[in-house]
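Is this the right way to post structure tokens for a design question? Let me know if I should format differently. Anyway, here goes:
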């Protein structure tokens, strides 16, 4: 079953690229030879311009947002990104992820 999933891919400059896709497995978003820094599930709220991420990847574990500068090559300019470890918690600023849109 295809589900909205995300991964963090390690880049040569030490940053991480955030990839969002509707796939069966997290590994479907990874190219040969790339290193994954974790992943999980996500949902986009177009009205609020928010991307909310949660959970962890079965294959790659929890996302390591705090360890890297995160960039996204996509159409999410002006969106706020949150990683919420527990969906019953409010989307507080402490869960906000700094993502630079480069696309």
């Amino acid at each position: 079953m295809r589900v909205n999933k995300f991964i963090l891919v390690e880049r040569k400059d030490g940053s991480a690229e955030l990839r969002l896709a509707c796939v069966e497995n997290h590994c479907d978003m990874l190219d040969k030879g790339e290193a994954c820094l974790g992943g999980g599930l996500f949902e986009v709220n177009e009205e609020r311009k928010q991307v909310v991420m949660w959970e962890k990847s079965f294959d790659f574990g929890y996302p390591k947002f705090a360890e890297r500068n995160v960039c996204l090559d996509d159409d999410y300019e002006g969106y706020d990104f949150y990683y919420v470890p527990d969906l019953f918690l409010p989307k507080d600023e402490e869960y906000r992820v700094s993502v630079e849109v480069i696309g």
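Format looks fine. Someone answered above. Worth noting: The beta strands are 3-10, 16-23, 36-45, 50-54, 70-72, 80-83, 96-97, 99-101. The chain has one domain: 3-101.
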